[in-house]
């Protein structure tokens, strides 16, 4: 179980890493393709201008972009009709552009998106060789301000990184919840093992002690010996029921049991379940009633064997905790789509502390494990009803009795 949880934890971490990497790669991809589109837009213009400048022609200035050309020694070549005196800003631009000149003269195209001192905080810069008669004469550059482009790119970055932050927080929250659930399940597993050990140990200890006493012939009174045998038989039956219920619950939770549904005569099911308890009520001096509403329930759609099992568990529970001269009742009501069966007793009820955990394994109201039964009945009932797609609920208060309700779909 620990290995399984560890693998799930690693899967969650890998998913988080992939998500973060995907977001970062997405942001960089947008920058790359956006930049590439601008380059493809400017490259043809630069190539045409390069041909004109190489042939000694001059071009007109434009506000869209700036053209700069240099010979192989780094001296600026005039490219505009209206030649002007170089300013301090031009000097900064020239210094930046000539730093790329060795690469450009070697025949490579330079592409940058960065700050160009003296021109713009963010600019697209493209440089290529200046060629005349198949001989490299120097380099020519085109610069275009990219403030609007940078603003759009920053908007993309903002969206991506906000998405990244929110997504990361959500994944971390789910990861934290998963770790919390893992710890809770691990604690439940430990408690379950401890409860099983205790439940199995109690009858085994009794059987062992009584058997050793009989084996050592410490007790010689025939009546006492019969009493010891009676206790051994009772504890053996209790042990058998506990093991049987554990196996039943395990099979139910691993969904290895059949839960085929079919139209069910609900009145006949209640009648069949109630018959043995009617006899038991006389022996226990209890009042056992089936209301007219329960006797006249419509056909429902469920699994007859499983509903019989659930009602038997609920009635057994009610009889177990109802005192002499108490009352156990099977009642019912119907809605447009559902039928509800209620098993009510006027016993001591269930305390507020126990009620939220009543369907858990080994939860008994007396908590001393002295009552009959395995403590698994209600867990089995809950598992059956859930797998049938129905509900089971409980309503109880201390000293006010208890009502268990199950729902069934009308046929």
From TrEMBL:
Residue span(s) of domain Histidine kinase: 195-411
Keywords: ATP-binding, Kinase, Membrane, Nucleotide-binding, Phosphoprotein, Transferase, Transmembrane, Transmembrane helix, Two-component regulatory system
Annotated catalysed reactions: ATP + protein L-histidine = ADP + protein N-phospho-L-histidine
InterPro entries xref list: HATPase_C_sf, HATPase_dom, His_kinase_dom, HisK_dim/P_dom, HisK_dim/P_sf, Sensor_HK_Regulatory, Sig_transdc_His_kin-like_C
Top EC class for this record: transferase
Domain of life where this protein originates: Bacteria
Entry's Gene Ontology molecular function annotations: kinase activity
The protein, known as: histidine kinase
């Amino acid at each position: 179980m620990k290995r399984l949880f560890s693998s799930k934890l690693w899967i969650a971490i890998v998913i988080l890493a992939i998500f973060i990497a995907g977001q970062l790669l997405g942001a960089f991809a947008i920058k790359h393709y956006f930049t590439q589109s601008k380059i493809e837009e400017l490259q043809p213009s630069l190539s045409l201008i390069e041909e004109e400048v190489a042939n000694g022609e001059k071009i007109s200035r434009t506000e869209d972009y700036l053209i700069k050309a240099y010979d192989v020694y780094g001296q600026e070549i005039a490219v505009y009709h209206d030649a002007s005196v170089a300013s301090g800003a031009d000097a900064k631009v020239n210094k930046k552009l000539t730093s790329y000149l060795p690469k450009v003269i070697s025949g490579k195209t330079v592409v940058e998106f960065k700050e160009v001192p003296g021109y713009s905080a963010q600019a697209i810069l493209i440089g290529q060789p200046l060629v005349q008669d198949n001989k490299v004469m120097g380099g020519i550059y085109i610069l275009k301000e990219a403030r609007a482009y940078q603003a759009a790119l920053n908007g993309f970055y903002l969206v991506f990184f906000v998405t990244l932050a929110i997504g990361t927080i959500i994944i971390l929250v789910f990861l934290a919840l998963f770790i919390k659930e893992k710890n809770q399940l691990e604690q439940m597993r430990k408690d379950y093992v401890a409860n099983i050990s205790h439940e199995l140990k109690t009858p085994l200890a009794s059987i062992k002690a009584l058997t050793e006493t009989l084996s050592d012939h410490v007790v010689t009174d025939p009546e006492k010996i019969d009493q010891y045998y009676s206790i051994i038989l009772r504890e053996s039956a209790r042990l058998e029921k506990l093991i049987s219920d554990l196996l039943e619950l395990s099979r139910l939770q691993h969904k290895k049991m059949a839960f085929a549904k079919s139209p069910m005569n609900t009145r006949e099911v209640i009648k069949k379940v109630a018959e043995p308890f009617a006899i038991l009520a006389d022996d226990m001096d209890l009042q056992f009633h089936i209301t007219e509403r329960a006797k006249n329930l419509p056909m429902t759609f469920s699994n007859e064997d499983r509903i019989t099992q659930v009602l038997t568990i609920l009635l057994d529970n009610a009889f177990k905790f109802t005192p002499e001269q108490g009352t156990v009742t099977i009642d019912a009501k119907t809605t447009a789509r559902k039928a509800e069966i209620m098993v009510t007793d006027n016993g001591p009820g269930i305390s507020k502390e126990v009620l939220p955990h009543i369907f858990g394994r080994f939860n008994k109201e007396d908590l001393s494990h002295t009552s009959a039964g395995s403590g698994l009945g209600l867990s089995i009932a809950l598992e059956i009803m859930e797998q049938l797609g129905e509900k089971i609920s409980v309503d109880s208060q201390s000293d006010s009795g208890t009502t268990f309700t199950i729902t069934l779909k009308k046929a």
